[in-house]
Amino acid sequence: MLKWMRFGSPWIWLTAGSVSLSLLAVLGLLLMIGWQGLSYFWPAPVYQFSVAMADRQQVVLGEIYETKAVPRQQLLEAGYTLKGNDSPTIDRYLIKTGNRELADLDFVTVLATQIQSQTVARGVAVMDRVRNGKFYGYPQAVVDGHTRHEVSSLTMLETWLTEAEVMREAIRELNDSQYIPLYRQLAGMKSQHGNTASETTQQTIQAKLDTVTQQLAQMRQTLDGQALLVKDAQGQTVRIPLAEILYLWYPNDMSLPEKVAHWGRQIGHFVTDAPREANTEGGVFPAIFGTVLMVLLMSVIVTPLGVLAAIYLHEYAEQNRFTRLIRVAVINLAGVPSIVYGVFGLGFFVYMVGGTIDEIFFSDQLPAPTFGTPGILWSALTLAILTLPVVIVSTEEGLARIPPSIRHGSLALGATQAETLWRIVIPMASPAIMTGLILAVARAAGEVAPLMLVGVVKMAPSLPVDAQFPYLHLDRKFMHLGYHIYDVGFQSPNVEAARPLVYATSLLLVTVIVGLNLTAIGIRNHLREKFRDLEQ
Hints:
Belongs to the binding-protein-dependent transport system permease family. CysTW subfamily. The protein is an alpha+beta fold.
């Protein structure tokens, strides 16, 4: 036993066990997030309940969102009257009923003792809408103006919804491509002092604008005249405009392949659509785009700064007390709370640098700031300062691993120190540089606190990249997956409805970080193989 302990075998097993437990914990966390997030998009069965309330009989139509066993004594203390059930625990169902415009909440809490009957609702449809969340009901007919078309099949409904979607896209395209440019052009002519544009030109633009406005009004009138008549759980007929219905499906009538296909489509919509209903509905594409763009900008900024600083400290600076002090400061900066960097970015980048840019280049637009307000550029610069110590330390370690004989051989052959650095040292240290970039990306993609001060918002009206010159708008605010998780999880007006989106967005953020890291790791491994022979 003493010999076994003397050779360090217990510590080897202890280390291996700790690593195994850590991997299991990480895997379990990812599985929990993945299950909670991805199961949200699966078409859950819809039930019709006959519920006995205190003073009336009520029909409830919806999905069983959550089931929880509650102690009987706790319900009695809360004032519930329990009859015909002596079990120590009673199931409490949280039923998602939707139909938010007909009720204040889209969830109903029902005890198992209150349910008199529970049946699978055949022929019920679930509609995902632009406003007011989901609607559960039985489609009856499609109204087009004064014409009524009885619902005969899902294909018939999909045809009408497709036509409504085409009309919606046509209205959006006409508004973005013609109405908005003409309106801005005309407003710009009228607002310019000493305008030299002739009245004929303004009248021509005004005539085009009036024509486009009339076309939009006619298209909207046609679209508003189309509606779906749906019978709700109480038997009342509700009129839902087709323009507000995004997707419709019959969850209780689907086969397994149809459910899998629907599940895949819903995940696709979640990734590619914009958020709705205060981020509790819709997708997260603007947040994905903003996160990736911000990380790429940060990488472009922090990599040259970190590499140049490391090269100076290791290759040019004398190894004295001053350089040792700089290294200690760099290492200590890695432990500064991220919110401090956010305050620094707000004060220095936004107010000082951005305010100076506005005074020099955009003075005619003041007091409305252009760059003197939080934006994606200042967010990228703030995170670049935050992750700079990681890149510096990693690059220095890579430079220290290169044998001095390689430098001496290059200098002996007549190369200058700059040529040696550019052609030999930096390429050989590139795997270490990529390692530092991987660590920087992993930290920057998950940071939220500093971004709340320097550019991230709950809802961004437009993406930082579009077809208008200069195409990349670094002054715009943006959405971020980390802040989206915080907003949906803690600031949402409907916590229960938003909870699955927290898990889904968390899984997506982990996927984005893993994807960025795998890309950087692939580049690092390629560079390592490329310069392995030179190191030997």
